[in-house]
Amino acid sequence: MTDDTEYLLEGDGTDIRALPKISLHDHLDGGLRPQTIIELADELDLEVPSTDAELLGDWFEAQSNSGSLVDYLKTFDLTTAVMQTREGLARVAKESVLDLAADGVIYGELRWAPEQHLARGLSLDEAVEAVQDGIEDGLDAADAAGYDIRIGQLVTAMRHADRGLEIAELAVRHRERGVVGFDIAGAEAGFLPSRHRTAFDYLASQFFPTTVHAGEADGLESIRSALLDGRALRLGHGVRLAEDIVVERQDEDNSYVSLGLLSQWVRDRRVALELSPSSNLQTGAIAAWGDELVDHPFDLLYQLGFRVTVNTDNRLMSATSLSRELALLSDAFGYDLSDFEVFQRNAAEAAFLPIEDREELIELIEDGFDEA
Q1: I need a labelling partner for 113 at 20 to 30 A (CA). Which of 47, 73, 122, 334 fits?
Q2: Nearest to 152 by CA among 176, 173, 119, 186
Q3: How many percent of the chain have pLDDT more than 90?
């Protein structure tokens, strides 16, 4: 979803969109442009709630403000429906690259579930190839427009289905053709990562990195399974890890907390948390702490030294961009440029890239923030 809004950092007026940023948690089927949905739906003779792009965008945002992950996920029925052809997948991928580039993203990982895009005859491999073609077209167009951006695919298996190993093998087959990691997604409660232990065992044997959706619609047991069964190097959201942190007492200047074994492990091992502030609010992931962004445990986790990263999750459903998410966090917690740089360094260090490439990203971040 395009976002031409100017986001200025309060105090010094820095243009947040111009800052170099890393996007680790961005769903391909959650970032479509409303106008693209309308046009692709027309080609496939599908009904849409509105043929006005602005009204359709408003519809997605309203439907997503449900407070329930299950209800939130229903909006994807429409986006996935228009992503069932090679042309549709390639177009959506290309536009996602361009939208991220225009927002100042210098490295992004686009995650999506190929098994959900086979209704019109594509094979799993053909679907992955179509997305990669679109990404490469987007990279070429971004370069021609003066942007410097890199993109990797995160191939995702649906946690409620039984195709985990098949999708893991698909991801590994394409590791030299754009796929950088593996994920499981979908309804979290009742579907622990342990259901896909065979897939995760296979991925570990291939030294292939995984991130796992956990700690969004389910609690500590889901996170524990993501780490033990999924060998997760990052946690998709992971916001409910804060349930394992007890605030013992507070005074005017400080909070005194104790960490459980699980949260201690995540912090000490520097497992990255792919936090998505607006989405976490929409899905009720932070309901235990409140219903406003200032209630999000993001700041608690940050102050305690967890490797927090900032993400959009689904740009269309949250009517957001990475710049907007940073602006919202600044408004809620008073963050400044130095905090933003920490978040981007955290994300660069956690990217599913060789260490040389991660070090290069960090240099680009440092240079970009020095120039801000």
Answers
A1: 47
A2: 176
A3: 90
What is the distance of C-alpha 6 from the center of its chain?
22
Q: Are 307 and 271 in contact (CB under 8 A)?
A: yes
Task: Considering the candidates 95, 115, 216, 274, report the single residue annotated as catalytic.
Answer: 216
Report residue 329 as tokens.
């966090």
CB 222 within 8 A of CB 188: yes
The enclosing domain of 174 has a CATH number of 3.20.20.140
Q: Decide if 276 contacts 216 (C-beta within 8 A).
A: no
Cα separation, 10 vs 336, whole angstroms: 8
Q: Is there a domain that residue 88 lies in?
A: yes
Structurally, the chain folds into a number of domains equal to: 1
Helices of type H across the chain: 34-43, 53-64, 69-73, 76-81, 86-102, 124-144, 164-173, 197-205, 220-228, 261-268, 277-282, 298-303, 322-333, 337-350, 355-371
Tell me the pLDDT tens digit for each residue of 307-322: 999 999 999 999 999 9
- Whether 216 is catalytic: yes
Indicate the pLDDT class of residue 116, thresholds 50, 70 and 90.
Answer: very high
The whole-angstrom separation of Cα 78 and Cα 75 is 6
Residue recorded with tokens 């992955």:
128
Neighbours of 115 (CB within 10 A): 18
Cα–Cα dist 333/340, whole Å: 12
Distance from C-alpha of 273 to C-alpha of 255, rounded to nearest angstrom:
21
For 3-16, give the DSSP string: -----B-TTT--BG
pLDDT confidence tier of residue 256, bands split at 50, 70 and 90: confident
Angle at 341 between CA 232 and CA 3, to 5 degrees: 85
pTM: 0.95
| Residue 43: count of CB within 10 angstroms of its CB | 11
Range of the domain at 258: 16-371
9 located within any domain: no
Alpha-carbon span 128 to 179, nearest angstrom: 9
Instruction: Indicate if the pLDDT at residue 2 is higher than 80.
Output: no
Model confidence at 1: pLDDT above 70: no
Of the candidates 176, 221, 228, the residue with the CA atom closest to the CA atom of residue 201: 228
Higher local confidence (pLDDT), 60 or 10? 60
The answer to whether position 2 is within a domain reads: no
